[in-house]
Amino acid sequence: MKNSLKVERAKKNITQGELAEHIGVSRQTINAIETGKFVPSTILAIKLSKYFKVRVEDIFILETND
Amino acid sequence: MKTYFPYYFKKIGIILVIASIVFSFLSGLHTFVEGFEEGYNSTKNNEEQNLELKADPFSTKTRKNLKFIGLTLSFSGLIVYMFSSEKIEDEFIQNLRYKSLTKSLVLTWIIYGLVYVLKGNLNLERIELHWQTDGLYVLQFQLFMYVIIYNYYKKWKFE
Are residues B39 and B108 in the same domain? Predict the structure, then answer.
């Protein structure tokens, strides 16, 4: 699964730490999601989409082998 | 994995482990002194007087007690550390805990298996004789491995 979290974060001009603080997770979590090493739960995905005011599938994109 | 202690318990765990290292060092001090004496004397000629230190500063009973205290403190410290929560506890940290626990279990048994095979000690009689202490050390090693792997993930890999 790909994601555009980094892009969304850049649009808002916020750091990983700031985003983590807003969502209520650790900075490592944001880093792991951005680098594709961790796929978040539905709850966390919805929290992120609400924060960026976009749809979940705009941030998280399924790949053919998913 | 559920955490039962607040964040500051992590520091208490570390203090307990440090204390356990001191106790374990004291309980094994005689082997250190004996080794030093042996090494020092092996470098001397026969005519020179050999160094004789008081190799056993503690009685056997005290040594046994120190060893027991060291082992108990180390177990308590590692378990307290393991079950203390992070400043921010989330699903990713939980994931890291599970991963570290699985890896520490697998690695511990691989390492112990290899040591037994390579040292040629895979002998039931020996295992039976030392089973009690060997078992405790396996558990202690596993807890230690967990702490190392978990911190590697948290502080290095996903930093």
Answer: no
Tell me what ipTM this predicted complex has.
0.85
Residue ranges of A 13-42 with Cβ closer than 8 A to chain B = 20, 24-26, 28-29, 31-33, 37-38, 40-41
Residues of chain B positioned with their CB less than 8 A from the CB of A18: none
Q: If we measure between CA atoms, which residue out of B13, B127, B125 comes closest to residue B73? A: B13
- Using one digit for the tens of pLDDT, what is the confidence trace for B98-146? 999 999 999 998 988 887 777 766 554 555 445 455 677 788 888 999 9
- 8 Å CB contact of B92 and A25: yes
Cβ–Cβ below 8 Å for A25 and B88: yes
| Cα-Cα end-to-end distance for chain B | 21
CATH of A2-61, one of 3.40.50.12710, 1.10.260.40, 1.10.10.60, 3.30.70.100: 1.10.260.40
Q: Is A5 on the interface with B (CB under 8 A)?
A: no
Concatenated DSSP letters of B13-68: HHHHHHHHHHHHHHHTHHHHHHHHHHHHHHTS-SSSPPP-----SS-HHHHHHHHH
Burial A15-36 (b: 16+ CB within 10 A, else e): ebeebbeebebbbbbbbbbbee
Q: What does the domain layout of chain A look like in residue ranges?
A: 2-61
A47 in contact with B, Cβ within 8 Å: no
Output the pTM of the full model: 0.76
- Report chain A residues whose CB lies below 8 A from the CB of B90: 24-26, 29, 44
